[in-house]
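help with this record:
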Amino acid sequence: MKKIQLFSISIMLLMSSFVCNAQTEKKETVAATRIEAYYFHNAARCVTCKTVESEAKADLENLYGSQVTFKSLNLEDDATKAIAKKLEVSGQTLLVVKGSKKVNLTNEGFMYARTNPKKFKSIIKEKVDAL
């Protein structure tokens, strides 16, 4: 009887380890497939800085809906510093991230967000679709 109980417990432990591994792999896969956009900025902002943020956010929502998340983060907030360090950001930056891939759209944002928003939207689409 004791052998049967010991065998049953061993089987249950073995099966539970497989279930735990499967759940961990699923979480890692979801994180690697999620696309996130970050706009890092300072507290003092010009019109162009605000326009880059609003155009990027609107374009991403129009093109991808909830598939791409957008976060605007103030570099001067203590909570933001850890994310900025992780993504190796030190100044105003528009960054699209998927897993370990990063696409920096800062230059394009500052060049086209105010003067040619349609071109900026097409650049965003091109870069995000490539991810």
